[in-house]
Design brief:
Layout (H helix, E strand, L loop, with lengths): L6 E4 L15 H12 L3 E4 L5 H7 L9 E3 L4 E3 L5 E4 L4 H13 L6 E5 L4 E4 L5 H8 L3 E3 L12 E5 L8 H4 L9 E4 L2 E4 L4 H12 L6 E5 L5 H6 L2 E5 L4 H6 L3 E2 L2 H14 L2
Parallel strand pairs: 1-2, 1-12, 7-8, 12-13, 13-14
Antiparallel strand pairs: 3-4, 4-5, 6-7, 6-9, 9-11, 10-11
Helix pairs in contact: 1-9
Length: 265
């Protein structure tokens, strides 16, 4: 099954990291190095921005390419942007105001550029979360203050994203509005599947030779794009029903891949 694997894509938060985890496991770091020796790229695929992902993967940067901002930014180990999908500013402002207006003062908006998070905080915990994951950020009073290119608009909801998704999913379906974690709803013209396709073209890898791991609804397009999709066993029931292959540990599955490939060398 894994004989022709050329690339492994993985979501971060909720997949290879718990939501309170700040470092990769030593086991995964060693596995990523071993994958590189076998000619297999490891491609972290996340809603995070460039600085956060570079910091997290610092021990193995030379073994990775990256898909950030839920597929809207594709970049290399040096942080050089290889491709990006921008939201027109007028539309980004409309989405940001809608997130603010329809969350009953219980939503904080993050307007993401390729490298910087532009935050409109209300003291509900978003700033602390952005600091925790290591994104660069700036504070603004209103969406129109953002002068950066815009790749994603997100809303942080401390009462739970599931309580609000029905208000936004249909209205912003053309912007792939989806739950991206327990407390986040994201909107972007890209998606992780588009990011994977872009990366596969850059690295000249066939989509059927890609393994991908995810745990949430914003991972669906990525999982549907690749030949070997895995959903985490902690995922929502409808996602567990959607995908045949489940795993409780990305590291365990990578260990299986490495073992099979080692026997065939």
């Amino acid at each position: 099954m894994f004989e022709n694997v050329k690339m492994i894509c993985s979501d971060l938060d909720g997949t290879i990291l718990t939501y309170d985890q700040t470092e990769l496991s030593d086991r995964l770091i060693a596995q990523i190095r071993e994958l590189k020796k076998m000619g297999i790229w490891f491609v972290p695929t996340s809603g995070r921005s460039i600085p956060s992902m570079q910091k997290l993967f610092a021990p193995v940067l030379d073994c990775c390419y990256f898909i950030g901002s839920n597929g809207a930014v594709v970049f290399d180990s040096k942080g050089e942007v290889l491709g990006k999908t921008l939201i027109p500013k007028e539309k980004a402002m409309e989405i940001a105001h809608d997130f603010l207006d329809r969350t009953n003062d219980r939503g904080e908006v993050n307007i993401s550029g390729p490298r910087c998070s532009h935050l409109l905080p209300k003291g509900l915990g978003m700033v602390e979360r952005i600091q925790f994951i290591g994104n660069q950020y700036e504070i603004h009073e209103k969406p129109e203050d953002v002068e950066d290119e815009i790749v994603k608009v997100a809303v942080y909801l401390p009462d739970g994203a599931q309580n609000y998704i029905d208000q936004f999913e249909e209205k912003w379906k053309d912007y792939n509005a989806s739950i991206s974690g327990p407390y986040w709803i994201d909107a972007t013209l890209a998606d992780k599947g588009k990011g994977v396709r872009m990366m596969a073209e850059l690295l000249q890898v066939d989509l059927k030779d890609i393994v991908a791991f995810g745990d949430n609804f914003n991972d669906v397009q990525m999982l549907d794009t690749v030949g070997m999709p895995y959903i985490m066993s902690t995922a929502a029931p409808e996602l567990l029903d959607r995908y045949e292959k489940h795993t409780a540990s990305v590291e365990d599955t990578i260990e299986e891949i490495l073992s099979i490939l080692a026997k065939r060398r």
